[in-house]
Every structure is written in structure tokens, then in C-alpha cells.
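lol ok so funny story. i was supposed to be doing the assay writeup but got distracted and ended up predicting the structure for this chain instead. priorities right. anyway since i did it might as well share w the group, maybe its usefull for someone
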Amino acid sequence: MSDTHNSYKEDLKTLRGNLTQMLPADALEVFDNDASQLQASQQSILKLQTGDTAPDFSLSNAANETVRLYDLLEESRVILVFYRGTWCPYCNLQLSHYRQHMDNFTKHNAQLVAVSPQTPDESMNIKEKNELDFHVLSDNGNMVARNFTQVFKNADQPIDTMTNLGFDFDSHYADDSREIPVPAVFIIDQDHKVTFAASTGGDYRNRVEATDIINSLK
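and the output, tada:
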């Protein structure tokens, strides 16, 4: 079933076309320059590699319920996804892309868990916006993310540009650090070991393909 879906890269082309129509050219240039600079500056992104033991954690989901990683691992493997926020169109595209492959994830004894530093309210927003039927967790202060992927302070220029476009970046978070994670994906086996660790780098326009995750699960 999932083989009939577009790849992330194919859907990215459509998104880019839409953004070109929706955003002023100078604003899109700011965001693209930011992505390119992050690709160059963010090195040694992954904090855990294949074979490492994933540390346990407990975070609130969109309904403000506590979800513990090791409890989930008693049920199945976990595909752990770190993303930036609801305001990021590439994050929305990535999570929507993964949602289309849920049947294949489940078939290979794995459940999807998405983590960002957003508040539970914002987690609920992205869950409802993209009709996500998996856990979306709130990692206030990126306390969990720091153990898995690089965390950095978002630059002023893209945030100022968002503000000029009517988007309130700071309202999505419970603190004012403006720190966000570099997007990354991990598969954690039921013995708590990492079996897959991947990031496409600081350029947040690119994301790990669902097919790469599925091939690793196989």
C-alpha cells in the first residue's frame, strides 16, 4: 500500500511550488539562506549511533498525558522523530508523509513517536492539522532532544521574517530560548538499542524518507 505514495522529495517539489506562490520572494530567500547556512554550520548532529542504548524519558503528549519511552518499547519498536514545530512547513510535510506509511510501520512491529520543544497545545495543533494518529510529544527546553540530536538557537533573521509575515514563533514554546532541534530519526528496538540513526543535516528542507525507515525495519 505504502509503495503507491509519493516520496518526501516528490512532495517537497509540490510544497516548494506552493511556497513560491504564498510567500514574498525576499522572505523565501531569507528562509532558504538560513537552511543553507545551517547545513554548513551544523556538524556532528547525531548524539546516538546504531548500537547505542537509547536513554529512557517521559514527556507529555498532545492530551497532556505522560508517555514513557520504555513503556512504549514493551509494546513494539519505536520510530522516534525530532522535528522543529508546527510553524515549519517541512515538518508538517514530513509528519504527513510518515502518516501515510503507518500501515507499513505497524506491519514491521514499530510505532511512530514525534518530539518537538513545542507546548502540548501546539502538539495538538500539528496532530489535528495533519490528522496524525501517533504520539506527538512536548520536550520543553529540548531536554530529551539533546541526548539524541544537535540543538541550536534559531537565528533572529528568520524569526523576524516570520513575525513580519504574521507568525508568532515564540508563542509555540514555553520558554524564550528559541532553541530547536536539528531534525533526526531513530529506530529503537525493544531491547532499548538504536538500530537506525539518520539526519539529512542542518538544511531542514530535506528529511529522512519513509522508505529508508521501512528498509531498516525489514
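Residues 87 and 192 are 32 Å apart (CA to CA). The first strand starts at residue 58 and ends at 60.
back to the writeup now i swear
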